[in-house]
Amino acid sequence: MSWTEKYRPRTFEEVAGNQKAIAEIKKWISGWKAGEPQPPLLLVGPPGTGKTTMAHIIGREFSDTLELNASDKRSQDAIMRTAGEASATRSLFNHDLKLIILDEVDGIHGNEDRGGVQAINRILRESRHPIVLTANDPYSKRLQSIKPKCKVINIRKVHTSSIAAALKRICRAEGIDCPDDVLKELAKRSHGDLRSAINDLEAVASGEERVGEELLSMGEKDSTSNLFDAVRAVLKSRDFSKIREAMRVDDDPTLVLEFIAENVPREYEKPHEISRAYDMLSHADIFFGRAVRSRNYTYWRYASDLMGPGVALAKEKTYRKFVRYTGSSSFRLLGRTRKQRNLRDSVAGKMAERMHISPKVAISLFPYMEIIFGNDEMAYEMREFLELTDEEVKLFRKRKIKAPKAKKTRKKSDKTGPLYTQKKKSRSADRGSKSTEGKTRKSSDDKSPGSDSGDDKPREKQTSLFQFSG
Ligand SMILES: Nc1ncnc2c1ncn2[C@@H]1O[C@H](COP(=O)(O)OP(=O)(O)O)[C@@H](O)[C@H]1O
Ligand SMILES: [Mg+2]
Questions:
Q1: Does the beta carbon of 166 lie inside 6 Å of ligand 1?
Q2: pLDDT of the residue at 79
Q3: What is the pLDDT of residues 123-148, one digit of tens each?
Q4: 12: Cβ below 6 Å to ligand 1?
Q5: What is the predicted pLDDT for the residue at 421?
Q6: Where is the sequence biased in composition, kind Basic residues (predicted)?
Q7: Predicted local confidence at residue 72, as pLDDT
Q8: Residue 52 beta carbon below 6 angstroms from any ligand 1 atom
């Protein structure tokens, strides 16, 4: 059972936030109990705020609950039967009252059910039973004819501190030790959607005894400081035995891989070093996958060597500088909302396909993508390369991407040429095209073929950062 189900409130006292709304609902219930029929209750508010939950809690106050789906044929029949039964029985005894629940009447699950609206209106007209409706969108067209017949109660986003408190209760019940600031952070990211906050908590904490330190703070002596020791050994040294030693961590090796991937661009400075390091990581990733699938753990060894010494030797010499390593992005990139998670996954999918890496590694590259997208030209080219939508680009960059100016001189275009030219070129090689970007191609078309071929050399040398030969 998911945690959202497991910890679904059974009483009003357990519901977080919305105390005013609850007071009104209680008044409405007392009205019915006192033998005074009340108008249908319409709970309107954003997802994950407890509307369905409250509808069911209300149901406990009556003899029975009948949950109907107004866009479903069988439900419509049931609606009519109930409505008929109700209108035939002129006076209902209070203990016979059934609560009729019509959940999500604004029909976010499809819109060709006009019959649904008619059926709803009919039951609102005819039923003598108490009715609770819920909806997400107060401006939904479907609600226009329904709203005037109802007592509308606005359900608001749950306050961050109430969400944090709810998460804390769950952690206590699950026997998980999770620092308050992590809970607070999770709460903030959920933007008032308690369902998504609980889902996120379950994703990071389920089955753990303690969570969080590795995600929000660093440097404490625990298993994660070992994780960072491993990252540091790989990125900071070229000493085999030291690296192998440091890589003996308890953590899932793919997590180590993610941490290394995330920090490579923070430590390494030369493009070809970074390129080579990612090449190693992408191969390691493939071998980890193979090890798991085939249960042949020799692959594990290959993968570890690629990920450790392989990445370590990708640099020409060690850098003398202080770098603060991060390991928070996989946490941050859980995504605040379902929408963001979908966005994250679709971008990761595109990266995975084009770069021959796993979506998980793709996500670990997001911080690097942010750096790339900070540069106008690279942003433009990366967007074309991955075929990202405007919405997806926003994951890495707030400003709009301007189309690049036509290149004035060949020299300039060489210097700032696309990072991935090699890969693209190899695809379009037989077509003889040197560059695939609109404006750039235009300028190269202007040139004679001779100058084009001379153009190849510098580009070739500018090793692609994204050449993951998988
Ligand atoms: N106000 C709340 N108090 C406590 N738990 C909540 C609240 N809102 C949502 N939840 C949690 O999220 C889950 C989904 O809530 P639900 O009532 O289905 O939201 P809605 O119908 O508003 O989208 C519940 O099972 C519960 O675990
Ligand atoms: Mg609901």
A1: yes
A2: 65
A3: 888 888 899 999 988 888 888 899 99
A4: no
A5: 40
A6: 402-413
A7: 65
A8: yes
* pLDDT score for 98: 87
CA of 243 to the centre of ligand 1 (A): 47
Residue boundaries of the structural domains of the chain: 18-154, 160-215, 217-330, 333-393, 410-461
Q: Is 48 annotated as a binding residue?
A: yes
State pTM to two decimals: 0.51
Pocket test for ligand 1, best of 3, 8, 133 (most atoms within 8 A of CB): 8
pLDDT in tens, 68-127: 776 666 666 766 676 556 544 545 555 678 899 998 888 644 444 555 788 788 888 888
CA 138, 139, 145 angle in degrees (round to 5)? 90
Amino acid at 64: D
pLDDT score of 16 more than 90: yes
In this structure, what token pair is assigned to residue 407? 């290149």
User: Which residues, other chains included, contact 192 with Cβ-Cβ below 8 Å and sequence gap of 6+?
Assistant: 46, 48, 49, 156, 157, 158, 159, 160, 163
Confidence of residue 430 (pLDDT cuts 50, 70, 90): very low
Residues 350/387, Cβ–Cβ less than 8 Å? yes
Write the CATH number of the domain with boundaries 160-215. 1.10.8
Residue 189 near ligand 1, beta carbon < 6 Å: no
Give residue 86 CA to ligand 2 midpoint distance, Å: 26
131: β partners: 100
Q: Is 31 annotated as a binding residue?
A: no
User: HSE-up of 338 (CA within 13 Å, CB side)?
Assistant: 9
Select from 238, 39, 6, 219 the least CA-distant residue to 124.
39
Tokens 């970007």 belong to which residue? 437
Rounded distance between C-alpha atoms, residue 421 and residue 462, angstroms? 9
- CATH for 18-154 is 3.40.50.300
- Euclidean distance between CA atoms 51 and 155, whole angstroms: 7
300 pLDDT above the threshold of 60: yes
Q: How close is the Cα of 49 to the center of ligand 1, in Å?
A: 5
**Pocket of ligand 1 contains residue 179 by CB under 6 Å:** no
The two tokens of residue 188 are: 């903030």
